[in-house]
Write a structure and sequence with these properties.
Helix content: 10-25%
Radius of gyration: 22 Å
Shape: elongated
Number of strands: 8
Distance between the termini: 53 Å
Strand order of the largest sheet: 1-2-3-4-5-6-7-8
CATH topology of one domain: Lipocalin
Largest sheet: 8 strands, antiparallel, barrel
CATH class of one domain: Mainly Beta
């Protein structure tokens, strides 16, 4: 087989793969359209704060309860509308060289959300741009006709020597 035929075959194969990915994205776009109920929100993370020679490390796990939260995806244009509220059960451990390690558990109530923005899917990524123009990327873990699970990671640096790493997972069901 000559070199030209190999190149033509590779180009055709790459076009087939590109079309296949586009078709999968279009199918996934149409599958998430509609109204979903948020059935689970959980997150975990580590926060570190340093100052005056002392470092405080806080590890935490949060789980939502009493969820009354809907997410609606529309197309043409791709808009997302979120509305609802939920409560959080937060378990956390604070440790430092001065206090040692202390564990706590608290419930926080009244987290209300109402917002809208735009959404798009690129491969296994759900990208949401809120009404303030802030973009957040989520990794799609599971998608079926009745269940949609995605996760995100946040790395936040605060003034005064603080940093937080957070992983959140969200489950939507019809």
């Amino acid at each position: 087989m000559n070199f030209k035929k190999v190149i033509v075959m590779l180009l055709c194969a790459s076009l087939f793969v590109a079309c296949s990915d586009d078709e999968e994205d279009l199918q996934l776009n149409s599958e998430i359209e509609g109204t979903w109920n948020m059935t689970d929100v959980s997150y975990s993370g580590v926060s570190t704060t340093s100052g005056s020679g002392i470092t405080v490390i806080t590890t935490y796990d949060g789980k939502a309860y009493d969820l009354d939260y809907t997410v609606e995806f529309t197309s043409s244009p791709n808009k997302i509308f979120v509305d609802g509220d939920y409560n959080i059960n937060l378990k956390y451990t604070v440790s430092s060289s001065i206090t040692g390690e202390m564990s706590y558990e608290q419930n926080f109530s009244g987290y209300s959300f109402s917002n809208e923005g735009a959404w798009e899917i690129e491969g296994d990524k759900l990208i949401i741009t809120d009404s303030n123009g802030e973009e957040q990327e989520y990794t799609i873990l599971e998608k079926s006709a009745n269940k949609f699970v995605f996760t995100t990671e946040l790395n936040i640096t605060t003034g005064g020597g603080g940093a937080s790493d957070l992983v959140g997972q969200f489950t939507l069901e019809r």
